[in-house]
TrEMBL record:
This is Amidohydrolase family protein. Coiled coil: none annotated. InterPro entries: Amidohydro-rel (IPR006680), Metal-dep_hydrolase_composite (IPR011059), Metal_Hydrolase (IPR032466), MTA/SAH_deaminase (IPR050287). Keywords: Hydrolase. PANTHER family: AMIDOHYDROLASE-RELATED DOMAIN-CONTAINING PROTEIN (PTHR43794:SF11), AMINOHYDROLASE SSNA-RELATED (PTHR43794). Its EC number is 3.5.-.-.
C-alpha cells in the first residue's frame, strides 16, 4: 500500500485540502493522512513538494502517433492544401520510426497523460502502443472512397483489427475509427459499424472539420470537388452530411472536431448521445475555426490531435491554447471545464476506469506543483494550466513513471 500526500487533491467535488490518498493498483481510500497512516501502518509514504496538486491521470482522447515525424513537411493554414500535402507525403507514415512514436508518448507522459486514444492509420504504431506505459484505446482506422476497392480495404482493416485484438488487456483496448464522411465509402462504414456493434468496440470519426468538408457533403461543391476530381475522378460526395450522421444513430461515437458543424448538426448529434473531441490548436493550424465548447450540451474532451497538425503533444500546451482561443468565455469556468475535458469526461467517453480520484478507480495520478500558494482554491485550475509545463510525478495503475 502507498499513501500519497499533497496540499490539494482534485475531485469531482472540487479541490480537497489536507487529505491523502491510499492506493495499490487501485485507489483504496481518501482521507486525513493520520487516519490512513493508522489504517495502513506499513504503507509507503509518498510526499510531494509544497503547493502540489494530485489530479487523476490525464486523458488525451485523440492523437495520430504515426505522423509524429512531421515538423515542417505538411502545409498549414487551410484544410484542403493540408490534405493534399498529406496525400503527397504518403511515405511520411512509413518513415515515422518507432523512436519518433516513443518520443511522442514520452512527451505526453511528461505532461501528465496516462491514457490516450490513438488513431492508427496503418498499424505501424501497434507495437509502441502496446509497450508504452500509458493505457491506450487503439482506434483502427478505416477509409477508402472507391466502391471497387472496398473489399480489399476491408480485408486489410480486419487484419489490423485482429492484430490489435491479440493485445487487448487492462491497458490496451481495440476500437474502430471511421476516418470521415469525405473519405470513407458507405459500404465500409456499414461493415465497420456492424463489427463495432457485434464486438462492442468504441467508435470514433472525424466530422465537419473544415468549411470545405461542410460545403462538399452539404452541396457537393467547393475545394473538395477539385481535389476528388483530380486525385480520384470522383465528382459527387460518397456520403451526404445527413446520410453519414444517420449511420451512427444507435452507436454513440466520439466525433472529432465538429468545428464547422451548425447548431442544428450539434443538436442532432447531442440527441444521439455522441461526444466530441475538441482540438483547438489543430483547428487553428488547419484553418478550421473553433468549436464553441462552452455552448455544448454533449460531453467534450480536449485533445492534441497528431503532430500532423500540431507542434507538441503536451496536453498543457493544448489547454493554454484553448484558454487563449476561447477569448470571451469566463476564464475560471473555462479552466475548470478544461480540466474536466482531460479527466472525468474522456474517461466516460472511452469507458476507462480512471479519470477521477475515487475509491476503486485505477491509481492513475498526475501531480503538478504550483510555483506559489494559490490565493483561492477556486483558482487552482487556472494556475495549474498557466504554470505547468511538466508534471512533478505520475502514476499509472499504482506504478510511478515520472
Ligand atoms: O485530425 C487531423 C485532421 N483531419 C483528418 N485526418 C488526420 C488528422 N491528422 C492526421 N490525419 C490522418 C487521418 O487519420 O490523415 C489521413 C488519415 O489517415 C488523411 S486521409 C489521406
Ligand atoms: Fe485527427
Amino acid at each position: 500500500m502507498n499513501i500519497l500526500v499533497a496540499d490539494f487533491i482534485y475531485t469531482n467535488e472540487g479541490y480537497l485540502q489536507g487529505k491523502a490518498v491510499a492506493f495499490d493498483e487501485t485507489i483504496q481510500k481518501i482521507d486525513d493522512f493520520d487516519i490512513l497512516k493508522n489504517l495502513y501502518p506499513n504503507a509507503k509514504i509518498i510526499n510531494t513538494p509544497k503547493n502540489s496538486v494530485i489530479y487523476p491521470g490525464f486523458i488525451n482522447s485523440h492523437v495520430h502517433l504515426e505522423f509524429s515525424n512531421n515538423k515542417t513537411s505538411l502545409e498549414y493554414g487551410s484544410f484542403v492544401p493540408w490534405l493534399k500535402s498529406v496525400i503527397k507525403n504518403t511515405d511520411m507514415i512509413q518513415k515515422c520510426t518507432t523512436n519518433d512514436m516513443k518520443r511522442a508518448c514520452e512527451e505526453m507522459l511528461k505532461s501528465g497523460v496516462t491514457s490516450f486514444g490513438a488513431i492508427s492509420s496503418n498499424g505501424n504504431d501497434l507495437q509502441v502502443c502496446t509497450e508504452t506505459p500509458q493505457r491506450v484505446v487503439f482506434f483502427n482506422e478505416i477509409l477508402g472512397s472507391k466502391e471497387e476497392n472496398s473489399e480489399v480495404s476491408y480485408d486489410l482493416f480486419i487484419k489490423r483489427v485482429e492484430n490489435s485484438l491479440q493485445h487487448n488487456s487492462q491497458k490496451f483496448k481495440t476500437a474502430i475509427s471511421i476516418h470521415s464522411p469525405y473519405s470513407t465509402h458507405p459500404i465500409l462504414i456499414r461493415k465497420a459499424i456492424s463489427l463495432a456493434k457485434k464486438k462492442k468496440f468504441l467508435l470514433s470519426a472525424h466530422l465537419l472539420e473544415s468549411k470545405a468538408e461542410k460545403e462538399w457533403i452539404e452541396e457537393g461543391n467547393g475545394e473538395f470537388y477539385n481535389l476528388y476530381n483530380e486525385f480520384f475522378g470522383i465528382t459527387k460526395p460518397i456520403n451526404t452530411k445527413q446520410s453519414f450522421m444517420q449511420e451512427f444513430n444507435d452507436t454513440p461515437t466520439h466525433f472529432i472536431h465538429l468545428s464547422s458543424a451548425t447548431l442544428e448538426d450539434i443538436a442532432y448529434l447531442e440527441s444521439k448521445n455522441h461526444s466530441v473531441a475538441h482540438c483547438p490548436r489543430s483547428n487553428r493550424l488547419l484553418g478550421c475555426g473553433i468549436l464553441d465548447v462552452c455552448k455544448l450540451n454533449m460531453p467534450w474532451s480536449t485533445a492534441t490531435d497528431g503532430l500532423s497538425s500540431n507542434w507538441s503533444l503536451n496536453i498543457f500546451d493544448e489547454l493554454r491554447a484553448s484558454l487563449m482561443l476561447h477569448a470571451t468565455d469566463d476564464l475560471h469556468n473555462l479552466a475548470d471545464s478544461l480540466i474536466k475535458s482531460i479527466t472525468s469526461v474522456p474517461a466516460k467517453i472511452l469507458d476507462l476506469n480512471c479519470g477521477v480520484i475515487e475509491v476503486e478507480k485505477f491509481a492513475d495520478f498526475t501531480i503538478i506543483t504550483l510555483p506559489d500558494s494559490p490565493n483561492a482554491v477556486e483558482e487552482i485550475s487556472l494556475w495549474a494550466i498557466l504554470h505547468t509545463k511538466q508534471v512533478n510525478q505520475l502514476y499509472i495503475g499504482g506504478n510511478r513513471y515520472v
